[in-house]
Amino acid sequence: MLCLVRLPNDFLLEVTLGPRARGQECLDKVCEKLNTIEVDLFGLQFKNKNGDRYWLNLRNMIRQQIHVQPIRLVFKLKFYVPPHLIQQQSTRHLFYLNIRASLREKQLKVTDAGKQAKLIALIAQAELGNYRSDSVDLKQLYSEWILLFDGPSPAASASASEEQHQQQTVIRQQSVEVQSENDSSNQPTSSSSKSGARKRRKHHSDSSVAGITAAENEATEEEEVEVNTAVQFAAGSTGGPSTSTNISASAPDLICHSISVISIDSNQQQQSPPPPQHLSTPVHAQFYRSIVEHHIQLQDCLPSNAENKLLEEMVDLEDIGIDFFSACDCDGQGKCTIGVGTRGVIIGHTEAPVVEKKITYVALVKVRTSTNFFMMKYIEEDGEVTERKFRLSSTKSANALYRIITEKHVFYSCDTVRDSVTTQCVIGLTGMFWSITPAIFKDDPEVGKNFVFDIRRTLRQFYDDVQRTMFKLRNQLEGNLHLLISDAAADECEQMTTESRPKSSTSSNDQVISCDLVYSKH
Fold it and tell me: What is the spatial distance between Cα 246 and Cα 287, in angstroms, rounded to a whole number?
């Protein structure tokens, strides 16, 4: 039996199994190839003919759940845990790939623009390394993720561009008004200087040297007038004094300040180049520059460290590790969405993205199903017990919701897995036949049983088992290392003794004779 397992990075993995193989065998082989021992955190999903996704029951046979060949499965993260509880770097990488795939499929929603820019920068650092302004792949990655996050909405970008246009218009009007006032105040000075220049030019017209000096004086006077006018405009726009004596004293400082501002702006343009043409709106351009700034701050950061930082950034996200189901509230409140996460059950309306109710696992009293109806009884904050009823699209969806609530409740909130969970199963005709068969003819005692749940350990049991396994592996590696060192030392000692051993005194003829004697005996 051939199984095609799609990984979070869109690679396909072929797994060959026996005809009666169970889901756990397939998952173990996949995790073995991915070099991770934290198997309990992951699961396998499949799609039915309607396109709905369901978790593969790892305790049941694969051919009883999927009837299409070849079998196509998706390797996904089932139980989300914080990054500090992950023991292997390979598991952290798989977590990163799953979160990246969830962001790409828009299953995780990040609304904060600053956090979006930081996440894109971390993804770019993890996949393409340090920031380079001439990298085409880097710009393409930026553009893909900006458009994937939808960036800012078109209405927001249009309003931002309109506001910027209005601000530029107001500034231009103010500058024109100030410039006209300064020109009117400086008009007598400029006319008197021009008349004086004409008189000096007429008086010194006979002498060429005198004409040159007059032209130089005229040029210097005109330059002083232009500098004073520019400085008066700058001082008038900032609310400074308008007299020429005070302004001329501060002119060199203003010129130096303008030169420094120009140099700073040129450095900033080198660090954050303009965005591509399809991201030329003001809001997109600002978002692009913020991504570049975050990426520059991650200089020389290793890909593994960038992945770990992204996992830490996603801890506070509310949608992470949640399985969503579409349902209809039987109380007459219309369509709703039921989310099952790490802390409890979330109920929200489809029409308005507002969370109506958050129910923790501690407050849950009872959950049950009947055909395609799902009933849930829980304790309110005031102590009253409330029961709600939901209608799902099919009986299989209702059973899947019942299963995932029970498994996540046991994994996150319980100390051990109870027998009532592990032994709950459905027995068909094959199971009834095998139940009356003697135990001698049973090669598998679980044949004919369709288990409802496949959870094996809780979070605490899983963490302890992984710690023990890591400790044993570490001791084995240390023991193998000591054996290698001791074998190398023994070989070195043997080589030293053979080199120091004296050569035999027998000649070659004697050795040949002895060999002939030996052969003659045979």
Answer: 43
Q: What is the token pair recorded at 517? A: 């004697």
* pLDDT tens, residue by residue, 342-383: 989 999 876 555 677 899 999 999 999 999 999 999 999 888
**Would you call 187 helix, strand, or coil by DSSP?**
helix
How far is the C-alpha of 254 from the C-alpha of 376, rounded, in Å?
73
Q: Which residues pair with 426 in a beta bridge?
A: 450
State which of 35, 64, 79 marks the end of a domain: 79
Q: Which residues contact 100 (CB under 8 A, 6 or more apart)?
A: 8, 123
- Average pLDDT on 99-125 reads 91
> Does any domain span residue 107?
no
119 part of a folded domain: no
pLDDT reported for residue 309: 94
For tokens 């001082």, the residue is 235
Are 477 and 405 within one domain? Answer: no
Q: Which of these, 144, 52, 163, 50, lies nearest to 104 by C-alpha position?
A: 144
* 334: enclosing H helix or E strand: strand 334-340
Domain that holds residue 4: 1-79
Instruction: Please compute the mean of the pLDDT values over residues 38-49 and round it to a whole number.
Output: 93
On whether both 238 and 165 belong to a single domain, the answer is yes
Which CATH number is 17's domain given? 3.10.20.90
Both 406 and 349 in one domain: the answer is yes
pTM of the model: 0.69
- Strand-pair partners of 47: 53
**Considering the domain boundaries, does residue 508 fall inside one?**
no
Give tens-digit pLDDT for 197-220: 444 444 444 444 344 444 444 444
Both 410 and 327 in one domain: the answer is: yes
Q: What is the pLDDT of residue 209?
A: 39
Write down the residue that tokens 């169970």 correspond to: 22
- Count of domains in the chain? 4
The two most distant CA atoms of the chain are separated, in Å, by 141
What distances in angstroms separate CA 504 from CA 200, 497, 515, one per listed residue?
A: 122, 15, 16
Does residue 230 lie within any of the structural domains?
yes
Which 3-state string (H, E, C) describes 68-100?
Answer: CCCEEEEEEECCCCCHHHCCCHHHHHHHHHHHH
| End-of-domain residue from the set 32, 53, 79 | 79
pLDDT of residue 267: 39
Q: Dump pLDDT digits (tens) for 123-151.
A: 999 999 999 988 899 988 988 898 888 65
Specify the DSSP class assigned to residue 253. Answer: H
